[in-house]
Every structure is written in structure tokens, then in C-alpha cells.
Amino acid sequence: MHANYEKLDSPQGQAKAGLSEDGYHLSQKEFDDNIYYTLGTMAAGIVHEIRNPLQSIRSTMQLVELKYKDKIEHLHQYIQPLLEELNAVNEMLTQFLHLARVESKIIDLADLTQICHRAVTLMQPQAMLYGVEIRERYLSDLPSLLCDARRIQQILINLLTNAINARKRGGKIVICLSLDTSKTKFVLRVADDGLGIGEEVLQKIFDPFFTKGCKDGVGIGLTISQQIAKEHGGILSAASKKNVGTVMTLILPLQTPINS
Ligand SMILES: Nc1ncnc2c1ncn2[C@@H]1O[C@H](COP(=O)(O)OP(=O)(O)O)[C@@H](O)[C@H]1O
Ligand SMILES: [Mg+2]
User: Fold this and answer.
1) C-alpha to C-alpha distance for 114 and 180, rounded to whole angstroms
2) Which of 21, 2, 24 is nearest to 248 (CA)?
3) How many angstroms separate the CA atoms of 249 and 256, rounded?
4) How does pLDDT run across 24-45, given as a tens digit for each residue?
5) Does the pLDDT value for residue 4 go beyond 60?
6) Pocket test for ligand 1, best of 156, 174, 211, 248 (most atoms within 8 A of CB)
7) How much is the pTM?
């Protein structure tokens, strides 16, 4: 195992690790709120304009199949892939909605350790499928956080999904939660020993719709995650080294600037 990776295998080690000094490339991009406003307006418009006709197309296709299935050979085989394509477009629209912040927020005091553990539990089947081990390292007796737990969990699911996808097979992921030295911020890290990200690509990973190497990628997982972090007064950054691995770091203030 790489020395840097060893150091990350404990909450204290992760909090202290000077990743850039260890030869990791760093990426941390913040977007102007205007870009989200524009995307949000666009997304709401697109969803409105496309969802209804999509539903009509879908119903008509199902009706055609029902009516002509005895008359046209292999009709189901023709129709089914089209319905799947429609579902994919629908999924894309749902992703747009996330980006548009159309969903309502539920702000409450939550246990960040539990949120992490729940995200890991949800991702465990996918990790097992790829033969990836997920290790959890949480500092005990951490304070509660005023947050939208579902959205924070969404960040973790996005990070874990990327970490699982970033490899051919096998390996491990360490998810680690601790406090910074001043004890005013949570430090949450998802470290993987996957393929890593080259310096040039690393500068683009938070860009909306940037995707590379992931077959079902839409390219907005990190954009959304960054946005959620920002809404909680936090910041999401990436450090990576090609063929060594990637460390995603989410810093969240103990006192989030959000109101319940
Ligand atoms: N842990 C990681 N290891 C390697 N590459 C990553 C990792 N996380 C993100 N990336 C890169 O960043 C890109 C953007 O990620 P994301 O915004 O989640 O979109 P998507 O996963 O849909 O491609 C990915 O396509 C991938 O190239
Ligand atoms: Mg992703």
C-alpha cells in the first residue's frame, strides 16, 4: 500500500495529511451563483417542456404494443429498448431538477456519522459487485450538525459511486470523519486506491456535465455535491494522483449558516 494511503487510514491522519505536499494534485473550484441560477431556470423550463410530451410518447408506445403485439412479430423487442431510452432521458431530467434546487429542503439536527454509515450501507451491494472493500473510520462523540441530511447523504453517495467506478476491480475505499485541529469544522474524507485523476482532468471534474471514463456518467454528481456543500457553508475539494488514488474532502463548519 502507498504511504500516503496508510496515513489516510485514520481520522487524525486524514485531518493532518498535507496532501499537496505529498505530490497529490489538488482541485477545488467554486462556481458563481449565477451559473446555478441560469442552470436552474433552464432546468425548470426543460423539465416542463420535455416531460409531458415524453409521457405521451411513452403511453402511445405502450398502447401500440398492447394493440398490435399479436399482429407484429417481435414488437416487444422493438418497443422495450425505446422505453428504456425514455427512462434514461427521464433520469437525466431528474438530475437537472437536483441541480435546479427544485427539491424542498428538510433542515434538522443530524448525526453525520449515521449519515455516513447509511450511505455506506446503501452503496455496499455495488461495492461488493466490484469487489471493493469499504472501511469506515469515524471519530466518536462528534457533535450533531444542522443540515439537510438527505442532501448530505447524496454527496456521500456521489463520492462513493465515483470511488467504486474509478477502478477495474478490487481495492478499497476509506471513509473517514473527524474534526479539524481548531474543532470548528467536520473533516469528511472519501479516499480510494483507484485509477486516480491526471492533473488536467482534475481541474474539470467539478464542471457541470464533465464526465470521463464512466459509462453511465452524466457529469453532474460532483457539481451537485459541491453545490450542496456550499449551501451548508462547506467546501468540497479533490486531491488525486494517477495510478495511486483520489481523496475527496468535504469540510463542513460545525455551525452551518442555514436556518431550519
Ligand atoms: N474518485 C475518483 N477517481 C477517479 N476519477 C474520478 C473520481 N471522482 C470523480 N472522478 C472523475 O470526475 C468525473 C466527474 O464526476 P461526476 O461529476 O461524479 O460525474 P460522473 O460520475 O457522472 O462522470 C468522472 O467522470 C471521473 O472522470
Ligand atoms: Mg459520479
Assistant:
1) 19
2) 24
3) 17
4) 777 766 556 667 667 766 776 7
5) no
6) 211
7) 0.74
